[in-house]
Amino acid sequence: MTDDDRALQERLAALEAEVKADAEAQERRRETALAKVREQRAQQLSERDDLRRRQAEIVTKKRIDDHEVDHTDLGGALELAGRANRVKNELARKPQKGEKSWLISGGVSLLLGPLGWLYAGSWREAVPASLVWIVLAGIFSKILPTVLLMPVLMVAMPLSAIAGVVYALTYNRHGTRQRLWGDKDKKQLKSGS
User: Fold this and answer.
1) At 99, is the pLDDT very low, low, confident or very high (cuts 50, 70, 90)?
2) Alpha carbon distance 29, 27 (integer Å)
3) Residues 6+ apart with CB under 8 A from 138
């Protein structure tokens, strides 16, 4: 073998070693990259599982809390049902002698507005409200056409009827005319006031 062949053989061996080293380096980089991707994927899966677990805990806790709220609200619902039953019974019974009919009070208040409150309401509230009602009705009937007053009356008259019913029920409960508005201490008035 000549020197040229030997030099060529050495160069080929060196080149082959360099290619082999380069291929090994690329393989290590590829394996490192794959390991990193696997690690990231495992972390993502772990985070997803944690998120699902936390969401499940929240949903479960919410269901438990809702269930507990239902139990605590049950007492309030029973109390409300009891009150509704008492009101139903009070409205169903016929007025006795000396009591006011809630049907008459509500009907008159629906038709005449605060003038109907005079049937069972406190004089201190019913008389001024009736006077104001009459004055306003006179003024507005001269200024505005009836068509424009109808929406106002469709709200005011049912509210007046409700007040009339409440006046009659409080009258029957206390045996005297009672104020709906004003000081709590001064609510109970004598039947003449």
Assistant:
1) confident
2) 5
3) none
Domain ranges within the chain, ordered by starting residue: 1-93, 100-174
Model pLDDT for residues 15-62, shown as the tens digit of each residue: 999 999 999 999 999 999 999 999 999 999 999 999 999 988 888 877
C-alpha count within 13 angstroms, C-beta hemisphere, residue 143: 7
SS (H, E, C) the chain: CCHHHHHHHHHHHHHHHHHHHHHHHHHHHHHHHHHHHHHHHHHHHHHHHHHHHHHHHHHHHHHHHHHHHHHHHHHHHHHHHHHHHHHHHHHHCCCCCCCCCHHHHHHHHHHHHHHHHHHCCCHHHHHHHHHHHHHHHHHHHHHCCHHHHHHHHHHHHHHHHHHHHHHHHHHHHHCCCECCCCCCCCCECCCCC
Q: What is the pTM of this model?
A: 0.51
Q: Which two tokens stand for residue 50?
A: 């944690």
